Amino acid sequence: AGDQNLFTSLYPTLSQQLPREPMEWRRSYGRAPKMIHLESNFVQFKEELLPKEGNKALLTFPFLHIYWTECCDTEVYKTTVKDDITKWQNILKAHSSVDWLIVVVESDAKKKNKTNILPRTSIVDKIRNDFCNKQSDRCVVLSDPLKDSSRSQESWNAFLTKLRTLLLMSFTKNLGKFEDDMRTLREKRTEPGWSFCEYFMVQEELAFVFEMLQQFEDALVQYDELDALFSQYVVNFGAGGKCP
């Protein structure tokens, strides 16, 4: 969300550098931590992409929402950017989407062309005061990202670390909820109207997710469980039971 032209100008560097460094992925239930490389598909913010009540899918809606701005003008912030961020956050709240980040891009060249500008960190401070409450880390500064300088690279590295951390946190949370919903669906398999085909699609999506993360052993576990469940239904059917 936010300044689409700004994001477009930074996207090639972002998409190239994001998966470069691995992240340690820690999960619950005593599972051993693993190192994974994160690749993300960035899409323009639209309300219809947000998950709806009862949506069981894991790969069809965005996890982390990012607002991009390079505003350094007092009046522009007051009259335009502040209202735009407010509308964006209200939509997220309406859909119970709590994972977000605001990125303020600072450019010395842009500041030189402005007369009514705030001191270096004032816009960031205003955004944090207006929107972040106790989550001040949800607003980050990206300094001269297109410059070839040590300051620019340090800024990129700090931003990428923050982005990877938030992406992994959000993904892990959504994955955990998906697995809980899947277990609840599996526990209903003895109830009338339960569909093995519907359940198969849900657990197969979980397997696809593990494949995307190159966690092939975890993906195989999902298929093994589906095979065992299907085999049990075949046995039940042969013994005169019903096979949904």
TrEMBL record:
<dbReference type="GO" id="GO:0034498">
    <property type="term" value="P:early endosome to Golgi transport"/>
</dbReference>
<dbReference type="GO" id="GO:0006891">
    <property type="term" value="P:intra-Golgi vesicle-mediated transport"/>
</dbReference>
<feature type="domain" description="TRAPPC10/Trs130 N-terminal">
    <location>
        <begin position="1"/>
        <end position="240"/>
    </location>
</feature>
<dbReference type="GO" id="GO:0005829">
    <property type="term" value="C:cytosol"/>
</dbReference>
<protein>
    <submittedName>
        <fullName>Trafficking protein particle complex subunit 10</fullName>
    </submittedName>
</protein>
<dbReference type="Pfam" id="PF23036">
    <property type="entry name" value="TRAPPC10_1st"/>
</dbReference>
<dbReference type="GO" id="GO:1990071">
    <property type="term" value="C:TRAPPII protein complex"/>
</dbReference>
<dbReference type="InterPro" id="IPR045126">
    <property type="entry name" value="TRAPPC10/Trs130"/>
</dbReference>
<dbReference type="InterPro" id="IPR056913">
    <property type="entry name" value="TRAPPC10/Trs130_N"/>
</dbReference>
